[in-house]
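Morning, I've got a small favour to ask if you have a moment. I owe you a coffee for this, so here goes:
>
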Amino acid sequence: MLNKAILGNLPKGVRGPAYDPATLAPGIVHFGVGNFFRAHEAWYVERCLDAGDPGPWGIVGVGLTSGARSEKKAETFRAQDGLYSLTEVDADGGRSVRVIGVLRDYLLAPDDPQAVLARLCDPAIRIVSMTITEGGYNIDEETGEFRVDNPRVQADLANPEVPSTVFGFVVEALRRRRAAGTGPFTVMSCDNLRHNGRVARTAFVGYARARDPELARWIEANVTFPCSMVDRITPSVDAQMRTILNRESGLDDALPVLAEDFSQWVLEDSFCAGRPPLEKAGVEFVRDVTGYEQVKVRMLNASHVTLGALGLLLGYRYVHDAIADEDLRRFINAYLQKDVMPQIEAPARLDPDAYRRKVISRFSNRAVADTLLRICSDGASKSQVFWTDTVRRSLHSGHDLSRIAFGLAAYLEMLRGVDEKGGTYTPLEPTLTEGEVALAHDPDLAAALALPAFDGWRDVQTPQLTQAIVAARQAIRSRGVRASLPD
């Protein structure tokens, strides 16, 4: 098993930490220790330590869910002393493997909430970061406010010293730190959200206001919430892929991570309690990340989800196979060149067409073996983030809606779980109820437009867009995806 005992005798070609993980003091707590976090934020912090920064920037991971799977994950992290391997692959199949050592502890919140609070209240903790998914911030899309009516939020407000949500943990810790004179920490979102720092501020201050308005004012005045743009394709690792990764690395790692060789992190330099020298690891610090967010979310993420829906309908299961289809590749390029790029304000130093070419190249990386189902998972939340600005701008400007409507129609058809070859799959929509998913099967093809995926532009939705989506769904069913693709 991969653990600290074998760090001095790693297999040939596997790079280990340039420091002794046992001596690394924690300075960051992270909620949501998934593959993306381990291949992105943790990897960047690891690179800081490689560059000679002594820390203390070790990371304590926190899991918020209970159950056998969560408990097994926690047990494995502990058994491996927080160590795991990251394999980076390029489009030509070249790969490099390193062992990441920055994860210094892993806490399962349902097992011991007070241990999580104690760690958050440690004066050494300077940053609390999170990857809790696009839909995890509990924001009402219509009002833009934090939803205090959520049952779990209500439970935390009723018993705030024994929280279960990330909002309850962070706000209770900040209350205790204020009382102890410890001071605040930075709250840093690493999720694919427009203005993710502002969304996080709305969520945590909204929860605090419902609990104690004075505490909310203190948080607003003292806690910083930097916006960031994060990017790295990090596929799921199933048992088969785990076996392959271990065979190629020579490790016995129960928690390996696979990622493309590309990574990007653009971040506002707004840290109230200090930060690692992330610029040494390749993080780009800017005054405003909005332009970078727009390019990434509207070009990469939106085309990714669209490709996923179309590919699943055609019977593909992997991203690289879908983008290799000439018809799908042509459609994605047309969407980017005709619909997104003319209606986007890119940063001065970013060339949108070069970015488009890079997106297509990244999707073509066979070694990543990313699945279309993973890309489409939680599409109801992703659509609001990835599609909204392009849809709203197109409606406002009178822009051609044909490709946009077709992409939205493909998403709704994908929810039915059947491809054109008669194969079946199970869409992953954790935020939708059974009744909402059933709308995709409703004989009234406009009924599914009531899904929250369309909330981001519901106030400007036109009959023309509704009709175009319905017509595209009818065309997909009667003639198939390929014959129905708009130019």
In short: Residues 290-313 form the longest helix (24 residues).
